[in-house]
Design brief:
Elements (H helix, E strand, L loop, with lengths): L4 E4 L4 H6 L1 H6 L4 E4 L25 E2 L2 E2 H13 L5 E6 L18 H9 L1 H6 L30 H6 L12 H17 L3 E4 L7 H8 L2 H4 L2 E4 L6 H14 L3 E3 L1 H11 L23 E3 L5 H4 L10 H13 L4 E6 L20 H13 L4 E6 L3 E6 L3 E6 L5 E6 L7 E5 L5 E4 L3 E6 L3 E7 L1
GO molecular function: alpha-amylase activity; cation binding
Keywords: Carbohydrate metabolism, Glycosidase, Hydrolase
Pfam family, one: Alpha-amylase
């Protein structure tokens, strides 16, 4: 089954539609689109999508409801079918400089609805657009999250994130969130990413997670963690309190440490046994996500470019989780990021890795060789993954039990071929290289 998900970060909906052939050819099984809820249509900055004005309207700089319907139809109608996931922002509303700061969509927007009734009716998701959606009493009033409060679960859930008006888990708010998701499912969305989910109360999550209709979709949350304390405070309770999947930040941090100077690839052999990764059926794995390059506080989490390549080979070669591949249009304003993730989704090394992932899906993983700089493992008898993070040639000598023997294998990344035979086999892995051998 194809389950690799393309995060089409800040793509216009028509861009996704126009590139569906190459997305399918690359082997993806799903596309995660940016938050579709109403945000400033003239706001081309990516962060605008994370500041919704109204749940009842699907309109942004990226397109409107009609384009979304066309996108879903094109994804579902082609072969193979692609799943479509929507990014949802339900913790907060937009931080706007206006006197009615806690009225949404606000007086000016309601006037805009009246002046352009056809436009907003065309993009209406549900509800009566002649009335406001939220007022001041629908928001928490506990101030900003500051200092040590970032490590306190209560403060993180009930206080404001960077000035953004923080929604209460009141009956009215929960009903509107339920209505919004119900309408999105009726449109055909197959799943949802919940942004900033560690800032949301269990009651707000359960309002969506406990609905039998909603459970049929794929749900995952962004529980951003960077330390053992964060995992204990935010991630572990999330995993206990809900069945939803989550970004595998523990594995990401293990990957970062493994590829750092002095780090060991041994930690990636069986990370789940050291509590360094999420359960295989709850994990959304990644090497980079949109927060890391765009927020200065997280940029130190970026891997060196070749390490990022090696790490992609690891998450697409290993068993477990739903791999998420980030691909943007050069939204980062940092010069050193230029073209780094532009069209990454169809870069030849990435498509080779996805081909390997799809071919060995469901095959058990077994370690063939490991040391601090070299990791080699097999996927059933169909595939071999070898990763050398060092600056010199490395040899791996391993037992061939469990592999095709004799067996012809092709490295999908470099298009080399080799024949595995005998009781033991020696494999050469050049410096700073990943190999993904698939049985022919």
């Amino acid at each position: 089954m194809r389950n690799v998900t393309l995060h089409a970060f800040n793509w216009q909906y028509t861009d996704i539609i126009n590139n569906l052939e190459s997305i399918r050819d690359a082997g993806y099984g799903a596309v995660l689109i940016p938050p579709p809820l109403y945000s400033e249509p003239n706001g081309d900055q990516w962060w605008q999508r994370y500041q919704p004005k109204d749940y009842r309207v699907l309109l942004s700089h990226l397109g409107g409801k009609k384009e979304l319907e066309q996108l879903i139809a094109a994804c579902h109608g082609g072969t193979p079918q692609l799943q479509v996931y929507a990014d949802l922002v339900i913790n907060h509303m937009a931080n706007e400089d206006r006197t009615d700061h806690f009225d949404f969509p606000g007086t000016a927007e309601l006037e805009r609805y009246k002046k352009h009734p056809d436009l907003y009716e065309e993009n209406r998701l549900y509800g009566d657009l002649s009335e406001k959606l939220f007022s001041w009493f629908n928001f928490n009033d506990a101030g900003e999250i500051e200092g040590d409060e970032w490590s306190d679960r209560g403060a993180v859930q009930y206080q404001n994130l960077s000035g953004l008006p923080d929604l209460k888990d009141s009956d009215w708010v929960l009903q509107q969130q339920h209505n919004m998701v119900d309408a999105l499912i009726e449109m055909g969305f197959d799943g949802f990413r919940i942004d900033a989910i560690k800032h949301i109360t269990e009651r707000m999550i359960d309002n969506l997670a406990d609905d039998p209709k909603f459970k049929k979709r794929f749900w995952f949350g962004e529980v951003l963690t960077g330390s053992d304390h964060d995992e204990d405070t935010f991630l572990d309770p999330f995993l206990r309190e809900t069945w939803m999947s989550a970004y595998d930040f523990p594995l990401f941090q293990t990957i970062r440490e493994a590829f750092s100077f002095g780090g060991s690839l041994r930690t990636l052999a069986q990370p789940q046994h050291q509590d360094n990764s999420l359960p295989w059926n709850r994990a959304v794995t990644f090497v980079v996500n949109h927060d890391i390059p765009h927020n200065d506080g997280f940029r130190f989490w970026l891997l060196e470019r070749q390490d990022e390549h090696l790490a992609h080979a690891y998450i697409l070669g290993r068993d477990g989780g739903v791999p998420l591949i980030y691909s943007d249009h050069n939204e980062s304003h940092h010069e050193q990021d230029y073209d780094r993730w532009l069209d990454l989704y169809k870069r030849p090394d990435i498509t080779a890795m996805i081909e390997f992932h799809n071919a060995v899906e469901g095959q058990p993983m077994a370690i063939l060789y490991e040391n601090d700089v070299l990791l080699v493992f097999r996927r059933g008898d169909q595939g071999i993954v070898a990763i050398n993070k060092s600056g010199s040639n490395q040899w791996a000598d391993f037992n061939t039990w469990g592999l095709k023997n004799p067996g012809q294998y092709r490295d999908l990344i470099h298009r080399y071929e080799m024949t595995v035979s005998g009781d033991r086999f020696s494999l050469l892995i050049p410096p700073r290289t990943a190999q993904m051998w698939l049985a022919e």
